[in-house]
Amino acid sequence: MYKMMTPGPTMVAENVRMARSVETGNPDLDPDFYDFYKDTCELYSGLLHTKNESLILSGEGILGLEAAVASLTEPGDRVLVLDNGVFGKGFADFVRIYGGEPVLYTTDYKSVIAIEPLRAFLEQDSDFKYATVVHCDTPSGMLNPIADICPLLKEYGILTVVDSVSGMFGNAVNVDAWNIDILCGGSQKAISCPIGLTLVTISEEAKQAMENRKTGIASFYANLLIFKDYYEKKWFPYSMPVSDIYGLRQALENIKEDKTILERHAEIARRTREALTRSGLSLYAENGYSNTVTVFSIPGGVTASAILQTLQEEYHIMLAGSFDVMAGEVIRIGHMGYNCTEENMQETLHALDRTLRKLGVELKAPLEFSR
Ligand SMILES: *Cc1c(COP(=O)(O)O)cnc(C)c1O
Questions:
Q1: Which atom number of ligand 1 is nearest to the Cα of residue 134?
Q2: What CATH number did the domain enclosing 224 receive?
């Protein structure tokens, strides 16, 4: 195997893998499983500082984004899509699929969404049912200030949908304090489970908006209302992936026990950025660096694929390139969740140092953490 230092999926703790292998009952018929599911959802909500209900859906992270849009959008609804990254822009496609009218607010892909220009835009036009924003836009590693963006949108009566799939648990998320109506998460980023689950956290106001629709939700699997009263009725809309949820529970317990998780992510991320820039490499984004992923530009005279291939063949470390407008331009190092240790990053930086030198890149200083 190789060390998977990618920005999702991440490596998985042994106790999470073991939890996924225990014997299971029938999740549809066993009343205890309904308690287990609900307790796991409540544990997750608590870690995100909210009393809002969370649901675990059987499907990868993208399902959560689609479910949020499917459940809120009625034909003709205007939706504000904050677009300063690949995932940010991607929300427009979901809005169109469900008959909404996406209005893109597009800004530079290397900078965070700035608050004052957004406020000026909203002064002119704030007739939106909801807005979408990505917390950490993983292809660029940039972290939007949702703590300021979401309350601003709410001032104008706009519901907020936040994709924090790759942001949460490496960066602070406070759902209630920041007025997030639907928060989307995924199992395979800083939660450090294998790929397969998505989590949505839904405010009462968002539920009201779904209940008050004039038209039905044009989906079954992506319909968040089908979970209504599942606990009281002891009825799930489809059979739950019980082993995945056992693993998720263990991963969330690990996070709960980890009292310095956010501080560690902040420190590892800062030292990674310092090491890269000290050696003469440049970071892709100009501001708003996420604590979960660091993205640097490919130096001249070498290709991303040559770097990635050498790292994997000679050092058994996998990093990631990027896609869309960043394809071939950058390399991404994922230091989130179970990946986020000093040892993992030292080993990764050392291997990257050797690889770049071998490929003829001159570094100003060795790639390593300093104190
Ligand atoms: C990983 C990720 C998702 C989930 O989608 P993938 O299929 O794993 O790409 C959604 N949003 C963001 C910002 C992500 O980083």
A1: 13
A2: 3.40.640.10
